[in-house]
Write a structure and sequence with these properties.
The chain has 306 residues and is of the alpha/beta class. The chain has helices at residues 41-51, 66-71, 76-85, 88-96, 114-119, 122-125, 145-156, 217-223, 235-243, 268-281, 286-299, 302-305; strands spanning 10-14, 35-36, 39-40, 56-61, 102-107, 130-133, 137-139, 159-165, 175-184, 187-195, 206-214, 253-257, 262-264. The strands form three sheets. A nine-stranded mixed β-sheet has the order 5-4-1-6-11-8-12-10-9. It has a two-stranded antiparallel ribbon with strand order 2-3. The chain has a two-stranded antiparallel sheet with strand order 7-13. β9 and β10 form a beta hairpin. α3 (76-85) runs antiparallel to α4 (88-96), α8 packs across α9 (235-243) and α10 packs across α11 (286-299). It starts with 9 loop residues before the first strand and ends with a helix.
Length: 306
Amino acid sequence: MNEPTKSVTKAVIPVAGLGTRFLPATKATPKEMLPVVDKPAIQYVVEEAVGAGLEDILFVTGRNKSSLENHFDRAWELEAALEQKGDEFRLERVRKSQILGDIHYVRQGDPRGLGHAVLCGAMHVGDQPFAVMLGDDLIDHRDPLLAQMLDVQQRYGGSVVALIEVDPAQVNLYGCAAVRPGAEEDVVEVTDLVEKPDPDDAPSNLAIIGRYVLEPAVFDVLRQTPPGRGGEIQLTDALKTLAGMPADSGGGVRAVVFRGRRYDTGDRLDYLRSTVQLASERKDLGPEFRSWLRGFVASLPPEEQE
């Protein structure tokens, strides 16, 4: 067993994407700032990182992301207005986003893929393991996936990815893993990774989702990784290389098979589903919203209820 010598304290969150699936809404607004109920999607991700003990957050940004930076900064005029009105409830909610953690920013520049975005964090991360969190995946706070991954990395070393079981016909939408059983239930060893394989060529139906805990050795691998699928530097390709490297060189990849609650905001239909699910479970909104939703669905013509 390879015992890491340094604990994970930093999270890298790539947010440089253009969000083209949500146009025209994302023409001037970053997709990470689209609201999921009453918080921007990216705030859920930052809260998850901080909840797992990672308070040093690096956003890898691009152009037109100033509203994201403003969200995690002070809003003096708004705070003063809420204070003057005595609206302590909303004032506390506004202030929460600016005290979540120690937040930093670096610009990606050329959009050369997720692997390149991660590589942009090398100087900030240094020589310690770190987390990478993608904003399209929201993990329910009742299912602490990231905390489990950090624990696995602390005990075994190497890198750790998160996998979910998907319909075999949908593996072409994900990075897909070949695995062998480990010593623990739902903790497996990754032997191979394929980015968006054809269903007939996929090594399994275990798909990578947007949570990673990586050894800093990934940076040297990424620097030597040529562009792959789509002409981009793929993080999946670098992880495949790491999986075949010896442990004393920072190699080895394990995976946590996640069976908890995950909300996908990566396309319009999944975004709507996630918003409805999260709103339905809110104590302040859920009872009235669920009642309205039942009535609305019951009022639809039979062919629209299917």
